[in-house]
Amino acid sequence: MKIEAITLREIRMPLVHFFETSFGRTTERRILLLTVHCEGVDGWGECTAAEHPFYNEESIDTAWYVTKGYFAPMLLGKDVERGAQVPSHIAQVRGHRMARAAIENAVWDAEAIAKNVPLWKLIGGTQTEINCGVSIGIQDSPEQLLEKIGVEVAAGYQRIKVKVKPGWDIDILRRIRQKFPHITLSCDANSAYSLRDVDHLKRFDDFNLLMIEQPLWNDDIAGHAVLQRELQTSLCLDESILHARDAAAAIEAGACRIINIKLGRIGGFSEAIATQALCAKAFIPNWCGGMLEAGIGRAHNIAMSTLPNFKLPGDVSASKRYWKEDIIEPEVTVSSKGTIAVPDCTGRGFVIREDLIEKLTVRKETIR
Ligand code: OSB
Ligand code: MG
Predict the structure, then answer these.
(1) Contact assessment for residue 357 and residue 6, using Cβ atoms and an 8 Å cutoff
(2) Exposed (0-12), middle (13-18) or buried (19+): which is 155, by Cβ within 10 Å?
(3) Which residue range(s) make up the domain with 239?
């Protein structure tokens, strides 16, 4: 497959409900989509970088910059047979993992179409149904949060994760447990605490949480190891795990008992495959995290979630929780048991709605 051209585009999509974490509130997404044009086959990738460099260092604008200036020139005109070959072509650039993932995943997407196989099988997936949880942001009031949890539990989601931060934590978790004593519950702090908060964080042990996700600073694996020794509740790392080597270091240090894998944060399918295999050997379960993806990212997350060590319900949920209209057909739906049936057809298993994408596009550039 010769990569003849790469199209970058920015689309804008308003969220049906704002999403708030300890680092801020999002109401509208600016999403970078990427198409690799390979001798009659188009592969698509969605970059998970956000509007601002708050979750990590990247943003849609840094992703555009590094893709246009570096990744595209490194790949254009090259014969790239497989998605797995992309990392070696772009290895000279450091970091920029979400941008890296968008282009690598687009090549995997094209490869699955060219080979006429389902993407999830191509990457080595083994599960035909994936288990879903939801991530619920910080709300305007505790009552609003309790109501939202009720809706998602009734819809069948297998695990509820709520966002926490100082001032929106112990009391919130207590009220959730009063109303929903038996649900599978997690919380995610997105690095809102420090090791000075150990005594405060110990109180989270009262709520029978499946895990506490990323309580400490994004690059502090050692700090999480200190904290994990003080807590009964399992820690899960998100922001701290940028590649398989980070997973190895975190496991070795005892910094967590669970690892969230995000396809963008980890730099694409190749690194996701390696990371989950490494975690499997250490008996550390994985689950698929989300970044408020539109349909292409969602489809790729579903494929990733079929890998064997994705053992816990992920954050991949129904399109309609985020979008009035998704950019793929059919949109992602979740059964009343809280599962997504993995599409057993060629490629990503969802058709790109190019007409809708065209309407949502505010910026577009093809590099040849
Ligand atoms: O930490 O998992 C996170 C959204 C934006 C940035 C970071 C995170 C999240 C989510 C949402 O939790 C997951 C989703 O539903 O896409
Ligand atoms: Mg997280």
Answers:
(1) no
(2) middle
(3) 121-341
CA of 289 to the centre of ligand 2 (A): 7
Cβ atoms of 153 and 127 within 8 Å: the answer is no
Q: Do 193 and 108 belong to one domain?
A: no
Rounded to the nearest whole angstrom, what is the distance from the C-alpha of residue 124 to the centroid of ligand 1?
Answer: 25
Q: 175 and 296 in one domain?
A: yes
Q: How much is the pLDDT for 355?
A: 98
- Do 84 and 216 lie in one domain? The reply is no
- Would you say the C-alpha torsion 150, 151, 155, 157 has a positive or negative sign? negative
Let me know if 262 is a catalytic residue: yes
**Side-chain-facing half-sphere of 193: CA atoms under 13 Å:** 27
Rounded CA separation 232/217 (Å): 20
- What predicted TM-score, i.e. pTM, was given to this entire model? 0.97
- 103-157 per-position pLDDT tens digit: 999 999 999 999 999 999 999 999 999 999 999 999 999 999 999 999 999 999 9
